[in-house]
User: What shape does this take?
Amino acid sequence: ARLAKIAAMAPSTFLPVFRDATGSSPIEYLLRVRITKAAEQLSKSDCAISEVALNCGFRDSNYFSRQFRKFYNCSPREYRKRF
Assistant: This one.
């Protein structure tokens, strides 16, 4: 609703326009951006995985790990070992 308001559109109009432009809902898009940022941090820093999760907007490191696994088909720890 906030994004629709910023775009000066009704939420029912904004959602299909956003989905057409990005291929995903606003929530899915935000999750993808956060997970991508987390992957970058995991490969370039020695921060604890829970710290990376917090830095990328995840309050719960278990939720972060589940979402990360869905996106990259491996755990954050396994991803870090690859890089």
Observations:
- The mean pLDDT is 96.
- The radius of gyration is 15 Å.
- The CA atoms of residues 52 and 71 lie 16 Å apart.
- DSSP finds six helices and no strands in the chain.
